[in-house]
Amino acid sequence: MQFQDAWLEIRSCEHKPEKELEHETVLSIQALKEVMKVAEDTLTDMQRKGGAAMWDYSRRLDAGEVDEVMQVFAAIEAKDDGRAVSYSIDVVYGGRWYALSLVGYKAE
């Protein structure tokens, strides 16, 4: 899939996820591995400090990374508003709940 600009977003999730994210999948997709590491570090730090539970993180994807990341969203229906296409799924990974989104902005 070709986009002018694409982002992988992760945030905290407060309801039961639809899908278990396998450790092997995370390790095999570099962009996903990076956002999951940031998420785990953020949650650990917030728990240690007793901080708020809401947070989010976005990582810009290179053109070649979009197809790799799409593996996670394979069975998810896209939402298209004319300017962008987005895919979202709630996942559980390492016993924690996350909301993942892939947002791709179309060329104008």
Secondary structure blueprint with pairings:
Elements: E1 5-12, E2 19-20, H1 23-28, H2 30-49, E3 56-61, H3 63-69, E4 79-80, E5 84-93, E6 96-105
Parallel strand pairs: 2-5
Antiparallel strand pairs: 1-3, 1-6, 4-5, 5-6
Question: Can you walk me through this structure?
Answer:
- This protein has 108 residues and is of the alpha+beta class.
- Helices cover 31% and strands 35% of the residues.
- It has helices at residues 23-28, 30-49, 63-69, and strands at 5-12, 19-20, 56-61, 79-80, 84-93, 96-105.
- Strands 1, 2, 3, 4, 5 and 6 form a six-stranded mixed β-sheet that branches.
- It is globular, with a radius of gyration of 14 Å.
- The mean pLDDT is 90.
What are the main properties of this structure?
3 helices; 108 residues; 6 strands; alpha+beta
- Secondary structure: helix percent: 25-40%
Q: What string, H for helix and E for strand, traces the elements in order?
A: EEHHEHEEE
Q: Sheet bearing the most strands, described?
A: 6 strands, mixed
Given the C-alpha coordinates, what overall shape results? globular
Distance between the termini: 16 Å
Round the mean pLDDT to the nearest integer and report it. 90
SS elements, strand count? 6
Strand content: 35-45%
Rg is 14 Å
Tell me the structural class: alpha+beta
- Count up the helices: 3
Low-confidence sequence ranges:
none
